[in-house]
Design goal:
- It is built from four helices and four strands.
- It is of the alpha/beta class.
- Strands 2-3-1-4 form a four-stranded parallel sheet, sandwiched between helices.
- Strand 2, helix 2 and strand 3 form a beta-alpha-beta unit.
- Helix 2 runs parallel beside helix 3.
- The longest helix has 17 residues.
- The protein is globular, with a radius of gyration of 15 Å.
- About 20% of the residues are buried.
């Protein structure tokens, strides 16, 4: 049995995170893909964003990740993750569940499928923390 991997896929809206995560999950046995945006989808995948529920959405994503790792699955999580602090609970899961851990950054510049306002994207850019590649 192979060791599961927790993969964080980070980037600004429209960077290609979800597309990459879906593709990687499709070719990885025993894996799951989660992102906070899924919390805002109804049963027929209509997207209804509510900013007041964003903390719940991220808690939900974290909980699903923990459950899948507990079940021995590899997990792909695609969220903005603009700061290192946002990655920390996932890195802790990798330690707790003794799984491989990697972070992939996406820098594509496609139109956001969720119509994120330009000022919101700019705020994300302003607080963006780059990975330390030492």
């Amino acid at each position: 049995m192979s060791i599961p991997t927790l993969t964080i896929i980070r980037g600004l809206p429209g960077a290609g995170k979800s597309t990459l995560a879906r593709r990687l999950c499709a070719v990885t046995l025993n894996s799951e893909h989660f992102e906070a945006d899924m919390y805002f989808e109804d049963e027929i995948f209509n997207y209804v964003f509510d900013a007041s529920k964003l903390p719940k959405a991220h808690a939900w994503c974290l909980s699903l990740t923990e459950e899948a790792l507990r079940d021995g699955k590899s997990v792909f999580v695609s969220n903005t993750f603009s700061t290192m602090k946002e990655i920390e609970p996932y890195a802790q899961f990798a330690k707790d569940f003794n799984c491989n851990f990697q972070v992939i950054e996406c820098f594509g510049q496609w139109k956001s499928i969720h119509n994120v306002p330009d000022h919101t994207v700019q705020n994300m850019k302003n607080r963006w923390e780059y990975l330390n590649h030492e």
